[in-house]
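User: For a benchmark we're assembling, each entry needs the component sequences followed by a predicted structure for the full assembly. Here are entry 17's components. Please fill in the structure.
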Amino acid sequence: MTDISMGGSAPKSSLTTVDARTRKRNAAEKRFRAYGLTAIAIGLLFLIVLAVSIIRSGVPAFTQTEVHIDFTITQEQFDDAESQMLKTSAYQKLFIAALQSQLEDRGLEVSFDPAAIERLLGKTGGTIREYYRENPDQIGTPVRFELAASSRVDGYFKGRVSRDTVVDSRFLMVSDLDLVDALHDVGIITQAFNWNFITGSDTGVDNPGGAGIGVSVIGSFFMMLVVLVLSLPIGVAASIYLEEFAPQNWFTDLIEVNISNLAAVPSIVFGILGLAVFIQFMHLPQSAPLVGGLVLTLMTLPTIIISTRASLKAVPPSIREAALGVGASKMQTVFHHVLPLAAPGILTGTIIGLAQALGETAPLLLIGMVGFIARAYPEGVVSGFVDPNSAMPAQIYTWAARADAGFYEKAWGGIIILLIFLLTMNIIAIILRRRFERRW
Amino acid sequence: MPLLWLFLIVLAIAAGAYVLARVRVLAMAGENRRALHSLPVYYGSNAAMKSGVPALLVLAVWLVAQPLVIDTIASGHIPDSAIAETTSRGLVMAEVRRTADGIDMAIASGELSETAARDPQADIEDLSARLSDAGAILTSEITPPVFRAAQELRALSAVGTQAMTIIVVLIALFGALWALRETKPDFRARNVVEQGVRGLLIAAASIAILTTLGIVLSLVFNTVEFFRLYPASEFFFGTNWAPSFSGRGGASDLGIVPLLWGTFYISLVALIVAVPIGLFAAIYLSEYASPKVRAVAKPLLEVLAGIPTIVYGLFALLTVGPLLMRVFGDEGLGWMQAGTAVMTAGLVMGIMLIPFVSSLSDDIINAVPQALRDGSYGLGATQSETIRQVVLPAALPGIVGAILLAASRAIGETMIVVLGAGAAARLSLNPFDAMTTVTAKIVSQLTGDSDFASPEALVAFALGMTLFVITLGLNVFALYIVRKYREQYE
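Assistant: Structure for entry 17:
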């Protein structure tokens, strides 16, 4: 027998009124929830800040300040200029005279010295001379020149340079800005979309205005081609072996351990591998997209193998059994039935792996894809693989490492282009997955 | 483009063998497919495989081996006396290779005729002039032994390439003939082809082992080379990092301690940022969030993981650095000298690691069985008490594993620290000082102009080795913790 003591006294607390202890516990509950929400909010805030700063700093790279000048040259002036000793400066003089007369036509009286024009536009004589030497038939007819303004003038319009921060130098005088404003008012200086940034090549350290990312996009393209051609077949073959054929033994275990370790090795170590094996040992050309592609292939393989194995595993065993049942060999089962069914998943994984490889920078630094200027498009397919080139992330790094702040804008702009590529690849992967993924 | 042609010729032979074997076996069976052991495709594939695969394999091995063999032979032509005190055989051989490349360039541009390049009595001064006219880059004057070795190198590689072409084509033809000979209706073609494909699959899977082997060997050999030039004890215990770029060796202090300190300090700051945010985000997403919130917030957080690190590096250098300068710099609190600092890099790296921690923890928390929670609720615990006292302890080993993996990521991260952490190696406690890390120094030592044989460049491999060992150790340790302490439910 047990005695259940029935308390004679009234209950200390009631369910209808909240006592202090419950209040404390509820408050703790609310606080805890708030911490979680705050954490997510902070994470998303970081994302927004990142996106805003990329867009705000990168969009100006896509516009450019241009000077439009209608310019006519007569045959005599052309002959005269060609006969002089300093040919380009003769053109420069003609150009400045034309500019002055155009300003006067519009009733604008600004005094400026020829040196100011040179500061605003750089040496324009050479450009003009080249144009007329290539198109002699244009002599005598008015031609509209669209000349890129110097990087500081460009910066003035984009807010990078302001009247307060300008210090008189041989690059820009404060007084020049009056001229710039006047030219802007009459529509000679305008802002235009900068196609050169998307299609152009890198320039030297002294000309941020003319730098473009086009050549390094091609470099990245050739690199991705190497990665795709090598890592997809090798990755799929390795996954098929491990998932469908490998016996349970030490060799299989060794491969598995290696793959999972390689997936966690820092990317810079792959750069060291590329430098030591491909460049020092095999003497492959430095800075070539081929070598970059090889290094990135080794880096992407574990990712592709892991995702391919997951999609092979997702194919139900009944498919295999049915194929084996009607007399297919093991190999035929895998290649005729399992692989086609796993293909969408494999493709999705490969695209995501490629996107990862496209944004990878550190290994490329070690195999020499920075530090030189990618000036020219490759001449052909073979030269695209073996001639030195840059890649998008390496080009962005090169720009970020240069001293001139004008290049920072280019680096942000390059990031926008890189992210557009990554976004497109990821969206394609998501669409593929939505469209073709089968749930069994 | 002889290499591409050779490749195409082998492919053409393989394709021809495919067609011939198929036609042959069908003819032998009198167009009666049922008399064949395998489908006709397999007879063709067997022939293509036997002619193509060995030939391409030999081609690949030859391409790797030929420069090595030729280098050794050509190197034998340089007497020890020709190698000056200040240099090494490897450097002289690099010069020989450059000279040989220069001669090739000169011939291609028409500056030099093939016979003149082979003339052993050639006038060396005249030759150097022609080479530089052709745009070849030669660092020093060509000496007679170097020139002889370069001539030898060219002659040998010409012979080697010819031999390679002949042998590879012969192997392909021989393989094709062999396969055609054995092509009879009762030949078990499918089994043979499937064996071959299986071999290829195994070879593909072995690439993972080869990669690891390549990493380990390239790190070990160069690290050993480095320790021959620089004492290991000074490397591991030296507290000063000051590589010299002018002299070769001697003057440099290459102590790893300041670099390790910078690495760990930055990683610590990153983890202090990432772990609480990532963990609380994971708890909220898995325990509190409605499916709708989860469907939006989880992918958005994971976007942070998909952004390339160069973007974070630029973000640190150009946005976060100046921002911190405004608060902690000379105009604010005066703790910070420049925008690049431990805090800048650590903060940005923390942002990068948030989704890493949150995704892994989310999976682990979700794996805790619902029965544990229900039991706790049944005893009257609130949701937060359940999480703190039941779910988190159950998930702890996994969470620790996730944090260790994040730490290994932070230690191996390169671009953020290259751009955001500064370049000065310093032992300091102030998180607003510029410091540098192992990865950043690997980049700066290997992208400079110093040659690969100097301790200043080789130290990068020793640093890489350290990095590899640390990250590998962390990963293995993380897996061990997860395996050992994982609660087995059901």
